[in-house]
Amino acid sequence: MLIKAPKNSDVSSSEITDETLFRQRRRFLRTAVNLALTSTIATPLFVPASARAGTKLSNVKKSAYTIDEELTPFEDVTHYNNFYEFTTEKRDVAEMAQGFQARPWTVEVNGEVHKPRTFDIDDAIKRYALEERIYRLRCVEAWSMVIPWVGFPLAKLLKDVEPTANGKYVEFTTLHDPERMPGQRRKVLPWPYVEGLRLDEAMHPLTILAVGLYGEVLPPQNGAPLRLVVPWKYGFKCIKSIVRIRLTEKQPRNTWQVNNAREYGFYANVNPNVDHPRWSQSRERRIGEFFKRKTLMFNGYGEEVAGLYTGMDLAKFY
Amino acid sequence: MAMNSELWLRRIVKPTVFFVSLLPATLLTWYALTDQLGANPIEEIVRTSGDWTLRFLLITLAITPTRRLSGFHWIARLRRMIGLFAFFYACLHFLSYLVLDQFFAWGEILKDILKRPFITVGLVSFVMLVPLAVTSTNKMMKRLGGKRWQRLHQSVYIIACGGVLHYLWMVKADIRDPIIYGSILILLLSHRAWSKRKEEAVRRRRAHSATI
Lengths: 318, 212
Known about the structure:
The complex is a heterodimer of chains A (318) and B (212). By secondary structure, chain A is of the alpha+beta class. Chain A is built from eight helices and 13 strands. Chain A has a single domain (21-309), classed as Sulfite Oxidase, Chain A, domain 2 (Alpha-Beta Complex). Chain A is 21% helix and 21% strand. The longest helix of chain A is centred in the first third of the chain and has 28 residues, at 13-40. In chain A, 42% of the residues are buried. Mean pLDDT of chain A is 88; it is low at 4-17 and 25-45. With 212 residues, chain B is mainly α. Chain B has one domain. In chain B, helix 1 packs antiparallel against helix 2 (41-70). Chains A and B meet through loops of A and helix 2 and helix 4 of B.
């Protein structure tokens, strides 16, 4: 299934080439620096290559799930982040997250499953074939990006642990470690960050666990080493630096809902017709553009996901 | 040769304060022209101009207490300029919302004003600043008469409260900064209330001794 954006399909090829060239040069420089570093310091003995942000991920195949829209530049994707575990200043997250140790890293998968198991992140990367998915990301703050993620469908991992009949929801938890995540020293939100999906949402082919972007290992500020990406929901659903995935019978209470239930719900589907109580959701600013654009229902993924919500009052289940 | 204090104030202090007050706007312009405002420059411009509006409002309100506590009476001579800078940054803030953020989307702007309390209170505060800026000249002060002028300009306390509320209602979860601004405002307001009570007590005592 190919997801075609209704607009913006006529991006000039020169723009794309420029971007690619820019990226290649950047990557070349970074690889050079990495090589210089690794040849002098004995890091490769302790840290696998896949651990370092900026390292190219291998065996990534292009996915049919893509859109013909201009990519948001790497610099913007990696320097404009909502990741309160580091700081609430979007422009400072990259700096605050620099040096965050994303290895060793394990992810517990348990709860209502027949085969609970704990994955080492590098084993998971090897086990599940990596795909590149170009998705829109729409933040609840009314800005958006287009990001080439690298990851694998969450469904594959869930099938491996075999949810029981009681497993109706999936709950995700972020690492809670104020030493490594200095933003957690202040109780801006109730830590650790928790998110949740209904099982059918979690099993949907569009839902992925991302381990990289722009073909490289996920930088810390974007949720290293493992984050959720659910492109038809607001960005805050895409929980970062996951350490636990738990299948539950009851609907999990996600952090933003706990923090302010009037403003943030469990579903958080992108919906131009249901405003945030304090600002409009009908339009958004695509990063890099001057004029705001109209926000699309389900962030433009309605054809694929609208069926999940038939008969539901989306103004009530926001 | 020592410069007399009037000349010192006019030739050195005032121009310095003027250029320092212009610095945030200059830096913002420089960053905008050299693409140093990050991924979302419009948001950065709107937020920075808003921050500086609040800061200048609070500095304006701090002048009288500082004068009283320090005894440097010449500080009061800077109040008008700093107050006008608060208005200047408020204009930048409002214009960047109107032009850069919304690009004159009047329908959306109207919805914002009617539906979103933080926009409503921000706009009302801005509109209330306009008569204060207009009547800031010596001529206007004379025309209005000291008492009436003073009463009008006392509305700056309400405006500052509106500004802090505007900020508080805008943030998503991290209310630390609006709380800091709010605490400073409360401190300034209570100093004002306290000194007013003291003045009144003095006046009453004088009136009392006059009758005896």
